[in-house]
C-alpha cells in the first residue's frame, strides 16, 4: 500500500518529529526533536554561521567513532536551551536506545546532537528558556506520532520565539520525491539576522529563487514597510539569530556522504536569507540517512540528485516557515507575520 506523502521531513521513512511549545507568563520558546528509528540513523553536520550554539557535533565528524545518532534536538533558549537534550537522552535511555557500552542491554549512551537559536527574552522573561523537561516533552510528542504524520509548522517548538529579519519566524518543512524513488526532506527553524524579504518589493527571496512569485502590489508593500518601521521602533534590531535545519533521506549514505548533504543544504538557506551565515548567525544543518534505499552502484554521481534536492527542500521549508508564522506583539517585542502584511501567496 502506498503511503500518502505530506510534503514534510516525515516523508523520510523512519523519521518522526515532535514539538514542545511554551508560551505565556514571559515565555516564548520551545524545542523540536527529530526522532530516528530505534537503531538510529547515519548522521553528519555542517556549521556555517559565526556564532553557533551546539552539542555533540564533534561526534558526527566522519573521522570519529560514532556512526549513528538517535535523535536531533533543535531548541530555543540560546546555549541555555541545549539542556533540553538531556531530557531527550533520559527518555532514550529508558527505551534502551543508544550505543551499547556493556553486556547489559540497559547500558546504553544515546547520541543526541543539538543546536539552538537565540530567542532569549522574546516573551518578556530572559530566564524563560527550555530545559530537560521541554526536551522530554518534545521527544515524547515525536514518539507518539504515527510514521509519516504531518508536521505542525509556524510558531511551534524551536520556532516559537523565532524571528527572521524584522518578521516573525517559525518552523517549516518540505520534501522531494526523486525519480529514483528516494526521498529527501527538510525541517527548518527560520530565525536569522538577515532578511527573508526583498526590501524593494516585499517578495520572499526563497520564492524568487524557486521561480514562483507574484510581486506584492506597491500599496501593500508601502503599508507593510510602515508597519515594520513601527515594529522596529518598538523592538529595535534583532540580535544574535540562527537558522537551523535537519535534512533527511531514506538513502544509504556514509557519514562522509551525509556531511556533503548537510553542506549543500546550506545553499537552501543562502537562497532564502540574504545575507546568511553571518558572524551573529549560528547557521547549522544536520543530515540524517535512514538507509532504506541504496544509491545506484554503477553511478559515481548518484549522490548529486540528493544534494540538489536537499537545497531545494530547505528553501521551500524556510519559505513555509515564514508563511506559517503568526504575529507576536508582547512585552518582549513586536514581530509582524509576513502573511498578515502581504497576504497568502
Describe the structure.
27% of the residues lie in helices and 25% in strands. The chain has 345 residues and is an alpha+beta fold. The protein has a six-stranded mixed β-sheet with strand order 5-3-15-14-13-12. A five-stranded mixed β-sheet has the order 1-2-6-9-4, with helices on one face.
Question: Layout of SSEs?
Answer:
Layout: E1 16-24, E2 27-35, E3 41-47, E4 54-55, E5 68-69, E6 71-75, H1 84-94, E7 99-100, E8 108-109, E9 114-116, H2 132-144, E10 163-164, E11 167-168, E12 170-177, E13 183-190, H3 205-210, H4 218-235, E14 244-251, H5 255-272, E15 284-293, H6 303-324, E16 328-330, E17 333-335, H7 338-342
Parallel strand pairs: 6-9, 14-15
Antiparallel strand pairs: 1-2, 2-6, 3-5, 3-15, 4-9, 7-8, 10-11, 12-13, 13-14, 16-17
Helix pairs in contact: 1-2, 5-6
Amino acid at each position: 500500500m502506498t503511503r500518502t506523502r505530506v510534503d514534510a521531513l516525515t516523508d523520510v521513512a523512519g523519521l518522526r518529529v515532535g514539538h514542545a511549545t511554551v508560551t505565556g507568563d514571559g515565555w516564548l520558546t520551545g524545542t523540536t526533536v527529530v526522532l530516528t528509528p530505534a537503531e538510529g540513523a547515519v548522521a553528519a553536520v555542517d556549521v556555517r554561521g559565526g556564532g553557533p550554539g551546539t552539542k555533540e557535533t564533534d561526534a558526527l565528524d566522519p573521522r570519529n567513532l560514532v556512526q549513528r545518532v538517535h535523535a536531533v534536538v533543535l531548541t530555543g533558549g540560546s546555549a541555555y536551551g541545549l539542556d533540553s537534550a538531556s531530557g531527550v537522552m533520559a527518555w532514550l535511555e529508558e527505551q534502551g536506545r543508544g550505543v551499547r557500552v556493556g553486556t547489559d542491554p540497559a547500558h546504553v549512551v544515546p547520541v543526541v546532537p543539538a543546536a539552538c537559536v537565540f530567542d532569549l527574552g522574546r516573551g518578556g522573561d530572559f530566564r524563560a528558556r527550555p530545559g530537560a523537561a521541554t526536551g522530554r516533552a518534545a521527544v515524547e510528542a515525536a514518539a507518539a506520532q504515527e510514521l509519516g504524520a504531518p508536521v505542525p509548522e509556524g510558531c511551534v517548538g524551536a520556532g516559537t520565539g523565532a524571528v527572521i529579519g524584522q518578521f516573525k519566524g517559525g518552523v517549516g518543512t518540505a520534501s522531494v520525491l526523486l525519480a529514483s524513488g528516494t526521498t529527501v526532506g527538510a525541517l527548518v527553524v527560520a530565525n536569522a539576522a538577515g532578511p527573508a524579504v526583498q526590501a524593494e518589493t516585499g517578495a520572499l527571496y526563497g520564492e524568487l529563487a524557486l521561480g514562483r512569485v507574484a510581486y506584492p502590489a506597491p500599496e501593500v508593500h508601502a503599508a507593510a514597510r510602515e508597519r515594520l518601521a513601527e515594529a522596529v521602533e518598538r523592538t529595535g534590531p534583532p540580535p544574535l539569530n540562527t537558522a537551523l535545519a535537519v535534512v533527511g533521506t531514506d538513502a544509504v549514505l556514509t557519514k562522509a556522504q551525509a556531511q556533503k548533504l548537510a553542506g549543500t543544504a546550506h545553499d537552501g538557506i543562502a537562497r532564502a536569507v540574504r545575507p546568511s551565515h553571518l558572524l551573529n548567525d549560528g547557521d547549522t544543518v544536520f543530515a540524517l540517512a535512514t538507509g532504506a534505499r541504496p544509491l545506484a552502484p554503477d553511478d559515481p554521481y548518484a549522490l548529486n540528485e540528493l544534494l540538489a534536492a536537499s537545497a531545494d527542500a530547505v528553501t521551500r521549508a524556510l519559505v513555509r516557515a515564514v508563511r506559517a508564522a503568526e504575529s507576536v506583539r508582547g512585552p518582549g517585542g513586536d514581530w509582524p507575520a509576513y502573511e498578515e502584511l502581504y497576504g497568502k501567496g
